[in-house]
Amino acid sequence: MRKLFTAALLFLLAPAARAALFINNTSKCTVQVRVYAHSEKGKACELESKIMTIPSMGTMAFNNAGQVAENPGWEKGMTVAGDPKAAVWDALGFHNGTSTLKVGTGCATVTTGVVKDACGADLNVKWTIAGRNILVELYN
Amino acid sequence: MKKLFLAASLLVLGAQAKAALLINNNTNCTINITIFAFDPAHPGCWGLQSNVLTLGPNSSESYNTVATLNTAAPLWGGGVMASIAGGPTTWGWNAGKFFFSGGGGGATVGVTSCGLNQLESVPNPCGGTATVTWQPFGSNILLEAN
Question: If you average pLDDT over every residue of chain B, what do you get?
């Protein structure tokens, strides 16, 4: 009963939490990805990050979209309008050199997919929601 | 009902995922965090203890496995090296001990088998009360201060 109560409390709390993005690469290969987001009053995927390179077993954490500006930065001098903590994560794009797999919402049509990684293996890319946070997992 | 379904979906979806520890400090205060975990050579609730991770206001950190902390800051205390060689069932995250810089409160949240709660409320030196939660989803753990 107490656990159920705690679980219920956690869910009640979740909508008030601000949205972080976590990217975990548990595959055997280095991956290159971009993230897409939009400002509070903007359109889906209007913000496109520069390419991030994440080594095997590497991980990245962004508390809010404002932190993308520091590393890796937005493309073409884009900036978050308004409160960066109110910006919304839309999608993650994985690039293997020849093709792109985009997972998420907004400009993505799927939340999971499988694509060849740069090492030639099948790579799963999965977008999941935890409270208002997003976790993207890349794994073989 | 929808939320219950969502919770169930997350559990199902998480099945193939390996266990990461994801940490969010959504407060406007700096938090000091000690992480507790276990591996075959360091069993039990407090087998592996990290050095103190200082997480600034509105910032996040993540660790893919307990072995990530062999090389990533703040490292395991005493130069201990964790091993994941035995597979995902041989290691895991147990707890996070929080305390706010500049006064305020502290709390430890973690797995219930270690006698810990998954939710604690502590005084926040930036004003008000902070809620610290330990949320398993799939095989990952989300440790948050809001």
Answer: 88
Contact with chain B for residue A6, Cβ under 8 A: yes
Contact B14/B22 with Cβ under 8 angstroms?
Answer: no
pLDDT in tens, B29-56: 999 999 999 999 999 999 999 999 999 9
Spatial separation of the C-alpha atoms in residues B98 and B109, rounded to whole Å: 8
Q: Is A89 on the interface with B (CB under 8 A)?
A: no
**Whether residue B113 has pLDDT greater than 70:** yes
What confidence category does residue A3 fall into, taking pLDDT thresholds of 50, 70 and 90?
low
Q: Closest Cα to residue B72, out of B25, B27, B110, B23?
A: B23
What is the β-pairing status of strands A21-25 and A133-139? parallel
Query: Which residue on chain A is closest to B145 by alpha carbon?
Result: A17
Minimal Cβ distance to A13: which of B17, B62, B133: B133
Q: Is the dihedral of CA B27, B30, B32, B33 positive or negative?
A: positive
Residue B137 φ/ψ, nearest 5 degrees: -140, 125
- Which residues does residue B53 pair with via DSSP β-bridges, in sequence order? B33
Number of cross-chain residue pairs from A and B with Cβ atoms under 8 Å apart: 103
Shortest Cα distance from B43 to chain A (angstroms)?
Answer: 23
Q: How far is A59 from chain B (nearest CA, A)?
A: 6
B28 interfacial to chain A (CB closer than 8 Å): no
Tell me the C-alpha distance between B95 and B103, whole Å. Answer: 22
